[in-house]
Write a structure and sequence with these properties.
Blueprint lengths: L7 H9 L3 H23 L2 H17 L10 H20 L15 H14 L3 H19 L3 H12 L4 H8 L3 H23 L1
Helix pairs in contact: 1-2, 2-3, 2-4, 3-4, 4-8, 6-9, 7-9, 8-9
């Protein structure tokens, strides 16, 4: 039996020694976040499931290439990002959702989130305004170039640092900052036009 308190790096070492339970634990830890991230990029549940599965297959095939000096999650997201971007380029898809995968949270968590969200607003019109703003933001993000979308999603939805985004997207740190700066400026411009 695998101790669920083991670090990702320890689990990787066990995987490389052929311990299947370690692989199951890594999949268990990252299946939902990887699927959610990919779903935001392609907005197609079946496709996201296929790409997430391919991400794990490719990651486990190349596990010996993983450098334990870095976060395993960043490395795994890089594999998923590359697969998804390759697919988008081939299919010329241009969609994304800021809300993530439909199953990213359970219905109980969703209900609790809804209650919490609604309790933050004293008046129904404030809640309606917040929902409309959320829809406007999602629509604006859908219009961003794929590389800007990826950077914004990794930063503001996944909570990655600039260094981690640089690692995932395999671009220089300065480029990450440029993408995020330009994406924010474009979003601000688009949202400004929606309010006029």
């Amino acid at each position: 039996m695998i101790d669920t308190d083991r670090t990702d790096q320890e689990l990787v070492r066990l995987c490389l020694k052929g311990q299947e339970r370690a692989a199951h634990e890594l999949v268990s830890r990252y299946q939902r976040p990887v699927f959610s991230f990919i779903f935001r990029m392609v907005r197609d549940r079946e496709l996201a499931e296929d790409l997430a599965q391919d991400t794990f297959v490719r990651a486990f095939d190349r596990l010996a290439q993983y450098d334990p000096g870095y976060k395993f999650s960043s490395w795994l997201f890089k594999v998923g990002h590359n697969l998804t971007v390759d697919h988008i380029r081939r299919r010329e898809l241009d969609t994304v959702s800021i809300h993530g995968a439909p199953d990213a949270v359970t219905s109980d968590q969703q209900e609790a989130t809804s209650v919490t969200l609604e309790s933050e607003f004293e008046r129904p019109d404030e809640l309606l305004e917040a929902r409309e703003l959320g829809a406007s933001i999602e629509e604006a993000i859908e219009r961003l170039r794929p590389e800007y979308r990826t950077a914004i999603l990794l930063r503001h939805v996944e909570g990655y640092s600039y260094d981690e985004i640089s690692e995932v997207m395999e671009i220089p740190l300065g480029t990450v900052k440029t993408y995020i700066h330009r994406a924010r400026a474009e979003l601000q411009d688009m949202l400004g036009h929606l309010r006029e």
